[in-house]
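We close this part of the discussion by returning to an individual protein. Part of our work consisted of pairing the sequence of a single chain with a tokenised description of its backbone. What the numbers capture is local backbone geometry rather than side-chain detail. The amino acid sequence and the backbone structure tokens for this protein are reproduced below.
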Amino acid sequence: MEETIHWPTTADFPDPATADHVTYNPTLAELREYSAHLETTTDYGAPSYVSDYRSRSAAQTANSVDDSFDDDDFEVFQRGIDWVSDPSNDVLCVDRVVGRHEDVSAVCRLYLPKEYGRIALAWAKLLEPAEGTTPDFVTVQLPDATDEPCIRVLPEAGITTVLGSDYTGEAKKSFLRLFMFRAKQAGGLGLHAGSKRVTLEAGDGYRDVGQLYLGLSGTGKSTLTSHGLWLDAPEGAEMLQDDVCALLPSGTVAGSEGGGLYIKTLGLGAAEQPELYGAATNESAVLENVSVAADGTVDFDDPAYGRNARAVIQRDCLASSAADIDLESVDQVFFITRNPLMPPIAKLDETQAAVAFMLGESVETSAGDPSRIGEPIRVVGTNPFIVGSQGDEGNRFRTLIDELDVDCFVINTGSVGTDDPVDVGVEETVAILEGVARGTVEWAYDEELGLTVPTDVPGIDIDRYVVAEHVENFADAHSALRDERKAYLAQFEHLDDDIVNSAY
């Protein structure tokens, strides 16, 4: 008779408040001191570190919901528990809270070797201090435990063990992955999305428009979410979240990170992104894999340590950042794409929106697979952290936006056309987003595309972006794309057939 594996729970870890070998919730200054031997100090006083691993080890990550676990997987978790429990180890433990909304917020506990205080420092600045001492989620990250990364997740138990990687993003996403899983359990949906509140004049007063932006890391999600749309006070736009949210059945979009943002810095410039640049060159920032000279000079244009250079920046350094992180209600959802066969923007019905959600079309970035940068890629929900049936996610997305009466759009922030392509610049994108928020865009159904597209957008010549005029043999190209999309959607178990058949 086979022996039953008793999978661990958060209660299997020792109480860090009473364990003498555990340094529990030190100050940020102390966390920085623990990794002083690894630090290069920038000329503005912020610490900078270089990690051995510089992106997530997605191929080496598995969870017990979607993957079959056995004794070897059990040993990964037991190894983490044994390491934390061993009084001969110098253990660092930090508690933070993810989210503020009572339906999905959770206390997070991170265990690390003390010498890797830099990981805890960066992660701790993203979230807010925890009020309780009983963790909902526990992650053990042991960078030196194995030669090759091995990441295992028990979603129901709230436990993640990271072996062999010293990348800060593994700690960050370990908790956000479980935050999104908790949202699903609450009847909502976790989204890899930025949230934004746009305030506009309306008659004798003002109205708020709640927006969500879905896109893979490095495709402009943070840039669009934090952009002020060049509105003049008392109108304006505020960023609530730039990475992970939870769309709840009530229509509220719960934020996750109340402390800071984990932004890509390669090419970051003061002229193009002044707010993000200012925050990344503030002494409160933490840089990772950024080129920093011995004298502290920072060069955001130099990919000396790869193209996934990062900075943890503080929300209070951003004028566009709201004090709150929860969006009271969502009105508009935007899917960011770079597909040249798509117009600058198209309006989607709820089923087409589910198609866009499932397609998750973008381009590969250094945050995912650095060896495939720039290649076309599809990731359901532009969310590589889904736990459970992806088809069910698409069905639930459609149900939620239908019940909440949310308008959905796909926006192309790249170029339109494959022959004599036309770039969609920042000015054009901002004009489109402002027009959609104000409701001043005029729309018509395009028979060739099978989508509703703008016929007039205040401030730009939208006629320059007719897709068929910039693609040779457009009908054939679009037909092939539609058939290929339909075949792609058909692979998802549980996805409703009418969503599959609505591929555009």
Summary: Residues 72 and 406 are 45 Å apart (CA to CA). The radius of gyration is 23 Å.
